[in-house]
Amino acid sequence: MNSALRNDYRPDEATIARLRDRAQFVRLETIRLIEIAKVGHYTSVFSAAEIFAALYYDVMRLSDDPKWADRDRFLMGKGHAAVGLFPILADLGYLSADLLNGYTRLGNPLGDHPDMRKVAGVDFSSGSIGHALSNGLGMALAGRMQGRSFTTFVMLGDGEMQEGQVWEAALGAAHHKLSRLVAIIDRNGYQLDGAVDDVMGIEPLDEKWRAFGWDVHVVDGHDIGELTAALRRAKADESRTRPCCIIARTVKGKGVGYMETEPGWHLGYLDPSDAEAARAEILSKVI
Amino acid sequence: MSHALQRPQSPNSWHYRELNQKNPGLDHLSNGLISLVEAGHPIMAGSADLQYSNGLNRFAARYPDRYIGFGISEQNMVSAAAGIATTGMMPYVATFASFLGLLTCEQIRMDVAYCALPVRLIGHHTGISMGFYGTSHHATEDIGTMRSIADLTIVSPADGPQLEAAIRASVDHDRPIYFRTGRGREPDLYDPKADFVFGKAIEHARGEELTIIACGLPVHPAVQVAKRLNAAGRSVGVIDMATVKPIDRDAVLEAASRSKLLMTIEEHNILGGLGAAVAEVLADEGVGKRLIRHGIRDEYALIAPPTHLYAHYKLDEKGIEELVLKAIG
């Protein structure tokens, strides 16, 4: 049965409001946790805040049991944005909120990168960029072999496109017709050494993924309605025989003005007064 | 059935005969995996464009839905195997040891060993068994790289039957495993139905003059040499250290207490491999025993047909006997 959602599907206003609130929660918690760590990846989370919110609060099939065999999976190629994931996992009840208060401190399982052995709700560990799409490919292969219907979502950084293994996985997923594998590229335009297109250009990105045999959709990654609709359509389309790639056009540091214009904020630490100003700006905006 | 599975060609073709008759040892890989599926284990197998080299084509023909061809993408294969293992399935993925142990080293570390997933990695055609294919295809560093990865078990079978026994035993082993196996032409020493015990060395002979500690291909010639010398009144022991990690420390210490000399033999660089592992045990325990480390002496091997190389590097019976006699006088 083809249960695909219509192309003009949009979530209702109440859902959009709820997801906006959760994306704001992700940004605020990121600031709070990095205050504890004294250094962290603010802007990598801010570009992906709507992606986190859409997946965990609307699109993914989850249960109270983070090990439920039929759950949808979420993997992060850009594992350095895990500081944005941990508050969600606590919010969903997978890990104690107290752990967040000791983020990165000695003995705490929550670090800069997600660790599946230590943190309930993390579907795969990451940190070495370029592995995650292959990990997700394996999950999708095994899920199909087991007759399970879960979807595997893999969020990739745009700088990550420079890793050769990504393209090995892209070839493999298309060849094996892994229709329940969805790659989400956080196309925020920056990597450590500068603008992605200056460091090692990756465009035309959509044409590359199409040429590799994927179903490709380009969306505004901060328009929570458009993004959520694209993700829901990707998940619901049971007639599709290709893996799906959603290129989310985003802004690195989205939500905090001075970070949006300064790529140096990839890794950093806010003074208390700057953190307060960032919080106020996030709370005052509708993204 | 995919196009690829219809190859290689006819049973009369050179390729088919070469791979299915001359490498009987590697048949044991598929045999072991097929028996595990028959016993109800959730086995998957995969290879990176080498199913005819490692014999997994037989597994693929038998269970096409359980075989994944990854193409020439070794890193993708290892990371995908880790993803597969998170779902409760047990993936066995195979490629040349030179690629598995070096090219995918970081994927093995991060996705398999650190994540403690039940992935079984099979590096075949190890050591210098690829002969004149050259250094790119020689694996004389893989024990060294794999040994430095925490929580990874390393097994170096001496022949196909021992590989099969270890594969069958591996379903009950709770850690990721790196199998380092030959090219399938090693003479049979073991029974595939024998029990394989991870971490337990296999003693073939006891000797007071010298004990050989070997793994992989050199085990068989070492056993033959010891038999011959002992029949002539000498006293040479042989231990098969099939599990290189965790090493059987007791077996090393027992050999050190019994024999005047120890000699490790491996188809690997003498740095970082079995010889190094044995030396570490002796040093840790304060045993001041002379250890002769025999193998590839921190160099890139010459190219030649494998048997010529084994003769040149004294890894065959004649060479091993010569070295042993020189050592014991």
TrEMBL record, chain A:
Pfam families: Transketolase_N. InterPro entries: THDP-binding, Transketolase_N. Residues 23-277 form the Transketolase N-terminal domain. Keywords: Thiamine pyrophosphate. Its cofactor is thiamine diphosphate. PANTHER family: TRANSKETOLASE N-TERMINAL SECTION-RELATED. Belongs to the transketolase family. This is Transketolase. The lineage of its organism: Bacteria, Pseudomonadati, Pseudomonadota, Alphaproteobacteria, Hyphomicrobiales.
From TrEMBL, chain B:
Residues 23-188 form the Transketolase-like pyrimidine-binding domain. InterPro entries: PDH/Transketolase, THDP-binding, Transketo_C/PFOR_II, Transketolase-like_Pyr-bd, Transketolase_C. Transmembrane segments: none annotated. It holds the Pfam family Transketolase_C. PANTHER family: PYRUVATE DEHYDROGENASE E1 COMPONENT, TRANSKETOLASE-LIKE PYRIMIDINE-BINDING DOMAIN-CONTAINING PROTEIN. This is Transketolase. It comes from Shinella curvata. The lineage of its organism: Bacteria, Pseudomonadati, Pseudomonadota, Alphaproteobacteria, Hyphomicrobiales.
